[in-house]
Every structure is written in C-alpha cells, then in structure tokens.
Known about the structure:
4 strands, 4% strand, mainly alpha, globular
Amino acid sequence: MLKTDLTRDTAAASKGKIATNKARKVQDLRFYAQLFSLAVNIWIGVQFYLFVKYIASGGTAWQVSRPPGVEGWLPIGSLVSLRYFWETGIVNTIHPSGLIILVAILVTAFLFKKGFCSWVCPVGFVSELMGDIADKLWRKRLKPPRWLDYPLRSIKYLLLAFFIWAILLQMTPQSIREFIYTDYNIVSDILMLRFFTDITPLALWIVAGLFVLSLVIRAFWCRYLCPYGALLGILNFLSPTRIRRNSETCIDCSSCARACPAFIKVDKVKEVVSDECVGCMACVDSCPVSNTLEIKAVSKKRPVSSFKWAAVLLLIFWGSLFVAKLWGPWANSVTDQQYMERIDKANRGAYVHP
C-alpha cells in the first residue's frame, strides 16, 4: 500500500511541471480575455460619454455615434425586453442590443456554468484584482463563517426575486410595451451615465464601501449582492457540463480547493455542484495528477480540456455579439434629434422610474 502511494505521488510530482505549464496557459488566456472585455467596456464608456456630450451641445460638439454596447449595462431594461420578446417575438427597437447581450450571457451561463463571470464580466475582473490584492495584504483568503456567509449570499437572490416579481409577474403585457417606449426608457442609458458623472455623496460612499469590503472578503459584490450572478447561479445547476474529481487517483493535495476563488471544497466532492462555481478552471488547471479533475459533459464520459472549453465559451459569447452587430438587430432606432429633445429633461431629473 505504501509503495503504491509513493509511486502515485512520484508520478504526480513528475507531471506537476507539465500541469503547471498548462495551467499557466489557460489562466493567462483568462486574464487576457478579461482584460480585453474590460478594454471594450472602457471604450464603450468613453464613446458613450462623448456621444452624450455631443447630444447635450445640441449637435455643436464633436459628433460621436452612440455605441449600442452600452445597453449591456442596463440589465433591468434588458430583462423587460426579454419578456416582451418572449410574449410577442419582437425585438424592441429602443434597446435591441441589450436584449442580445442578455441572451448571450444566459446561453453562456447555461452551457459553461457561470463562465461569463470569470471570463467576460469586467466587474468580475476588477473584483478578482481586488481579491488578489487582498490575498497579498492578509496572506490568507478570508471568508465569513458559514452562519454569516449563507445569509449574506441570500441577499442577491432576494434582489433577483424582487426583479422577477416586479417584471415577470406584476407587469402586464400592456405595461411592458408602455414602459419600453416611454421617454424614461429611451434615455435610461443617459440616466445611468449621470449616476457616475454626477454621483451623490451617498452613492460615492457606498461604492467606496464595496471596494473596502472587497479587500476584506474576496469578490464581496459578486458573492453577496449581484442579482445577475444569482440568475447565472441558478442556470449553473442546469448546465450540461460538470467538473468531476476521480477520488481513486486524487492525492489529496488540496491544490484545487486552494485555487478556487469561490471557496468551494473541490477536494471533498466527486462532482462540483454549486451556484458559486464561476467556471474559471483554476481548480482543474491546478491539479497535478492527470485525469483526476476534469470538465465533462453530463451525457459524455470523455473529458474536455479546459483550454478548449474556454475557447468555445469566448467564441460563442463574442461571436454571437459580432454576428448581431453585422446583421442585426443591434443599433437602436432613436435618432440623435430625439435624444436632443429629451436630454435637457434628463439633466434636470424630470424622468423618474415609472
């Protein structure tokens, strides 16, 4: 028995360098994918800011077209658009790209767990960077005790339940249509920008508080408050892909558990079934023993390499948006003149949520 264990450990050590190199390549891919997504969102933000400046000037400032991708930051409006599409089969022309982005996120979450959170989401990327800083500050990943962690994690599900109740249950088909074509919804992207450019002291303190909490507890916003993450976490359970551990070849090194950013005890389960798994593949890539921790489809026995899994995830998400951009629906039907007619009211706070 001792000889078998020594042989297994020696084999694991000899493969450790190979596994480490593979892990570095996959995690490097993830870092650059996240960086690319952050750069795209920053560019969209800058372009939208210049567009609003052009609109506010009445057309005298430098003309910049509105970037449709800004609608990705309007999740509530996108959820309204999704229900409208579900009932009518019509993609509304006010925020069409918001609907396309939401559907792409949902499809990605269904096929690749919460892969959107760890491979695409810019908020998740910033949160992860804050977590890396926290690891260096405390030299240990801090996690609240279970009696506190579970109630805190329920907050994002309560927020999600509220939006589902308000949008999917309370609003009638007629009120859905009326909301979509209100002036408020038309300028909701401008109102969102005003939140950041004219941020109130209270909102600023809240944002600062979230940053501080992210330095204490890794991914505080994502783990406890993000209703988007809650929705994707539910789809996580329906995903046809699973991370599975072969207990016979596992050497109990706990590398996978230490690598997991969501505190999942991967080394203690046969199959990772958790709403917190973000599909980052850090656990799979950290395993030093071949064929021990693998990503597999539920109906297939053959494993999929984490690199291919990630490549297909990124191809489906960005590819679907690229196709929509080329062949539509993507850009909205609101003209610059219509925006100019409404922006003064938006700046004066005349538009309130219906």
